[in-house]
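[step 3/7] fold_predict: job queued, chain A
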Amino acid sequence: MIPLAVVLLMLVKHATTQTGIVEGLLKILQEGGTHLYNEPPDEANIYSEYDFIVVGAGSAGCVVANRLTEVPDWTVLLIEAGREENYVMDVPILANYLQFSDANWKYKTEPSDTACLGHTNRQCNWPRGKVMGGSSVLNYMIYTRGNWRDYDNWLEMGNEGWGYKDVLPYFMKSEDNNVEEMEMDNEYHSKGGYLSVSNIPYRTALADRFIEAGLETGSRIIDYNGQNQTGFSYLQVSMKNGTRWSGSRAFLHPIRDRKNLHVKKYSLVTRILIDPRTKVAYGVEFVNKQYTYRVMAKREVIISAGTINSPQLLMLSGIGPQEHLRSHKIPVIKDLKVGYNLMDHIAFGGLLFTCNVSSLRTVDLLFSPEYYRKYFSYHRGPFSIPGGCEAMALYDLQNPNVTDGYPDTELLFQSGSIVSDPTLIKNFGIDEALYNLVYKEIENENTWMVLPMLLLPKSKGRITLKDRNPKHKPLIHHNYYTVQDDLDTMVAAIKKTIELSKTKAMQKIGSRLYDKKLPGCTELSFGSDEYWRCAARQLTFTIYHYTGTCKMGPASDSNSVVDPRLRVHGIKSLRVIDASIMPMIPNCHTNAPTYMIAEKGSDMIKEDWSK
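[step 4/7] structure written:
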């Protein structure tokens, strides 16, 4: 593994020893200073009471804080457990490295017998952002909205106002679209929002071949944020001018000087204050530098702590499954199915191909003065590729001939692989002995890989408390592959990738499937369905799309936690606004829907209080 500190030293070394790069370094340093100044400061003197308290400055919390402070008479306190964001975090190629920093909660799932078997202690790493901007600072910046059926399904589940026609305006409200091919599409895209969406300003030859392979097999180029989602595309990303455009940069930096917004960083909320008699939330308790504070909310407490932390906080505060709470001696205020319905998109992480053209390899990137010059001076070149991801293919494997399909599979293309960047071994928690046995021998070769991803998983997990100590991490039971359909779809996705690798486009670059067997699967015939089922259980990669643990649904839905206006059932003045409210996971990368939920939730708050 190459530590982030080493990467920074290499940046400085090349900048100070190569002609023409010094100016670029000075530019980056100046941008970094501006970045730090633009982030709202950590408020030293907070009030004892605010109109609204927002817990969590992740993607959703940044939006909610922005939109509520548009009302000048409302005061808002935004509380974040983590640190400030810095400019180095916004260099796209460094996405892999951020998981080793203090900007990550560094969660691990419970040991499993169904998946993550080739990972250390049979546990998957689950990164989550502990930083201003939350997981939008750690993610790979891929901006996808999903299919219209996703949201119409939410509507059919009893969530009035959450159909596709209802949510599309909120996707567009956030967006500042800078994708040249889509700038004239006013039906699905818009300009002028806070969140910049663009293409990656650099493409490798490998990515071009992948797109060609799609066309060769009869597929088409699509705008997957437009009318149809089945086809191939270069990535649309939440970036601006070659840099990460996180939730904090997008929604908080522009409002730094709003007097009615206070931000409190490095502050862990330990409890929501709820009157057990009236069932009214009236404030929060949080810890900062070993001191405990209580702050009151005149109007509402809004939990935007994410799919892991939001249910944890609710349960610590007495809202959750009563038997579970009582087992930890937590007084029950409201018996709700908090922590259930946990969903994620997962991929097989061992599908590698060797080739005869240059791929993105860490050693090549770190020792190329030209790459530093391009990024320092112009924000271009390979450093602008988010963690090596460049393109995707979306398939409806159940209905392959339908034009307006409902994709159940995504093939996420990387112009490198787990052997190209040693950080990926640690990122995903791959067992080192397995890696050395299977993959180490091709570390010096050019490789590419696809992450075949389940978009509509049926397996569901659960978040539970370890104990009643808010400083202890909750327990994560992922339950991957507990439904056979998920495993069968993954096998079909793997075979579809291999089919693409055999096209003329990919054979031009000498693509060859790496066929060394994984431990635990050696008795099976390589390439058989049985082998791929086994392999998928060995190297199970999360795509960081954790959702559903505070499920949205009407009062008649006994499994729901919040109503369609995101109010916690049976508790007044308390809402949850983040990815945890999704009743079903949409078939997309979930950062864009999280922004949408926050935009819509903010409008709901304004509507309710205007009455």
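[step 5/7] annotate
The two ends are 56 Å apart (CA to CA).
Residues 36 and 86 are 6 Å apart (CA to CA).
exit 0
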